[in-house]
Amino acid sequence: MVEFSANTKAEPPTPCVRAFAPATVGNVICGFDVFGLAMETPGDEVEVRHRSDPGVVITAIHGDEGRIPTESDHNVASVAARAVLMESGMGNIGLDIEIWKGLPLSGGMGGSAASSVAAAVATDTLLETGLTKEALLQCALNGEKRATGSAHPDNVAPALHGGLVMVRPDAPAVAIDLPVPRGLTIALIHPHLELETKAMREALSTDVPLTLAVAQWADCAALVVGLYEEDWDLISRALMDRIAQPTRSPFVPGFTEVRAAAIEAGAVGAGLSGSGPSVFGLCRNLRDAEVVANAMIQAFASAGLDRIDSYVSPVDSRGARIVGGTA
Ligand code: HSE
Q1: Atom of ligand 1 at shortest distance to CA of 27?
Q2: Residues in the ligand 1 pocket, defined by CB under 6 Å
């Protein structure tokens, strides 16, 4: 779908396309860099329009308090859009890009992936490139790599596909959609802290004891079986992380208590969303998720963190999409 912006009578209309990409929960606790799931809201929006000169230019960013770089080599949206141009053999086309950030910076909600994916999808639609979803995934990963120093696909893939996705991180990454049990709902609390994914990745040990690795890949397999069989008990037992969360959770005040509160309130599993600081609980239904969110809010408050945002969302089933309307 291509929108046409309002212009003066003398000027031809400038086609433009706006895309939304949702927040995502990376890792889904047990599968570091392997599993990710998409929330229905919130998310980022990116609008792309033709410009007369070649080059990709960020014209405005809203909702970032001036903190996101506008230089096209350093902005994830322009990096992803340029990758789409190059991949489709349209490197001589010029684009203007405007970004609306609905996701926090360094919040563990997949903000860089959402901007990258929305830019890739908007550019693809504007130019009718005909690129495959696999190709768009690779283009968006260019943006993610720019932001985090790593092309991990567990946020980009669910932001693009929607749903709960597993990725094989080979190059090129392969994303596989997994079944989402009926009712699965996310309660996510974003405390107003920032943890840069790059730093949180560098904090991790690169050596994993074999016994921990065995337990962890068994849990990854168990989660997949649990999802296929809608076996809530197996899903619950699989949602453990022995690899990344133990190193990262001390950066989030009250994490142990917040996680315990979520489980006590009925979550089937709870943990860091991506590299944190957001903490999420997976729940059987919307009503449970609301109870879990309130329990997590209270636990964060007891830890002295009362500046938080709270989200209760079903798993998004659509992924990135074109949204209407431009000024
Ligand atoms: N898999 C990534 C990590 C997700 O844990 O570093 C970051 O959002």
Answers
A1: 1
A2: 26-27, 32-33, 110, 152, 154-155, 197, 200-201, 244, 274-275
Residues whose CB is less than 8 angstroms from the CB of residue 170 and which lie 6 or more positions away in sequence, other chains included: none
Query: Where residue 132 falls among pLDDT bands split at 50, 70, 90?
Result: very high
**Average pLDDT score over residue span 142-164:** 91
Tell me the per-residue pLDDT of 236-258, one tens digit each, with 9 for 90 and over: 999 999 999 999 999 999 999 99
Q: Which amino acid appears at position 152 of this protein?
A: H
What would the two tokens of residue 4 be?
């046409």
Is residue 10 pLDDT above 60, yes or no? no
In this prediction the pTM is 0.94
> Which of 29, 33, 242 has most ligand 1 atoms within 8 Å of CB, for mutation?
33
Q: Cα(161)–Cα(176) distance, rounded to whole angstroms? A: 9
Atom of ligand 1 nearest to the CA of 26: 4
